[in-house]
Amino acid sequence: MDTLSIVFNLLAYAAASIFIGGLLYRIVQYFNTPSPLKIPGTPAPKTSIGVVFRLLPEILFFRTLLRGGVAEKILWVGGWFFHVSLFFILFRHVRFVTYPVPGFVMAVQQIGLAAAHLFPFALLILIVRRFLNDRMAVISLFQDYFVLFLLLGIGLTGIILKYFLRTNLVDVKAFMLGLVTLSPAPVPHSPVFLIHVILAAILVIYFPFSKLLHAWGVLMSPTRAQTDNPREVRHVAPWAK
Fold this sequence. Notes:
By secondary structure, this protein is mainly α. It has 12 helices and no strands.
């Protein structure tokens, strides 16, 4: 392999290692953070099964945002369509790391393609909202814009690869499949593809240390994940035992 291929293979493995290590570290942090008070948002379920059914609408449909005012509903439109389109885009990419490609993956290829078209518009809603909403403009930090523009860059380079500066898909699959099977293969020498991979690697590395980890945090939020049973069961923080 040439030097460029070696560099990009090492970049992919480094990104994956940092992502897995960082994610495990943050999950351990979440579990070790004490919850000294019983503070579920009422009305709250009294059983663990009830908590699961309470969390599902939040995870799948962002129910709290949907119940809010105009600003929250705008956020819901951008946020929900962003997450759904991202899911189908990632699912569509499974064809590059599997051989043979499962039938259910092939069945969602057109849905994934439609999601790729929707993805940049959902991101633009989230970006414009931060500029036009006075409150959001005040509290927004560099990392908030950084993640949004990073995702936008990944989405746009993907669309460019699909319609304008197409690269050889056989070479792309060989490279991706080589990463998964620990059999490094040459990287396609397409500038747009290389940029696409670099941006994706930056996102993967940054994910565990950013606000993007709310994907896991929502499951650990005491206001939503705790049962409302302070009378039935005494709640004692682990560090207070």
